[in-house]
Structures are given as C-alpha cells and as structure tokens.
Design a protein that fits this description.
With 121 residues, the chain is mostly helical. It has seven helices and no strands.
C-alpha cells in the first residue's frame, strides 16, 4: 500500500514565503492556539488552584484554606486569593505573610474589598 503524498499541494500557500515570513506565520498560529488557554486561565479559578498559589507564597495548608474560604465569603475569589493578599501587603507596606495572617484574623476583609472596589468601597 502506497501512501498518497500530498505534501506539495498542502504547502502551496507557503511556498513563496521567506524564512522570516514563515517564522512570523508560525508565531501568529501559536498565538491563536495559546490565546484561548490564557483566557481560560485568567477568567477561571478554583479553590484548589488558589490554595496551591498560597502554599507557594509560604502559607501553611490550614492558613491557605482559611484565606481561600475568606475570599469566597467576601466575593474576592475572582481576583485570586494570592492577589488579594499581595495587594493588601503592598497597600500596608508589609510583608505578604503578615497581610495574610491579618486576613485570617478577620481584621482586614473590608479593607481588601475596598482594594477591589467591593461593596464596602
């Protein structure tokens, strides 16, 4: 059984392109493939993903769980739990851990909501 070789017909639209043009076409096709994946990553999250981010920021699993639950309770999860902690730390000019612990102690949720334009803004 011989395979029908259609390489020449499939590459006809690329035949006249230079190496630079081929490279530009390659990267534009890659962007088309990756953009939907990036959009999903930016627009969707889960408590497990948010806990994982917080673990990598230095919080224990118990602390991460409490922070994620607080973000869900205060409708901040869409912004990312790590981002909430980071922005609070940046605003207070404190370290990330201190800002996270402040949230766990329930002292700063209203402040965090204000940072993201929440209902207490």
């Amino acid at each position: 059984m011989k395979r029908a070789d259609d390489f020449e017909t499939r590459r006809a639209h690329l035949k006249g392109l230079s190496d630079a043009e081929l490279e530009a076409r390659f990267w534009s096709l890659i962007d088309e493939m990756i953009d939907p994946l990036l959009k999903l990553g930016y627009e969707n999250t889960s408590p497990a993903i948010e806990r994982s981010v917080l673990l990598r920021m230095g919080f224990s699993s118990i602390e991460a769980k409490a922070l994620v639950e607080g973000c869900i309770e205060h409708n901040l999860i869409e912004h990312g739990a790590g981002n909430v902690v980071y922005r609070l730390a940046k605003k207070d000019a404190s370290d990330i851990r201190a800002a996270g612990l402040k949230l766990i102690e329930s002292d700063a949720w209203e402040e965090a909501e204000r940072l993201f334009g929440g209902e207490n803004a």
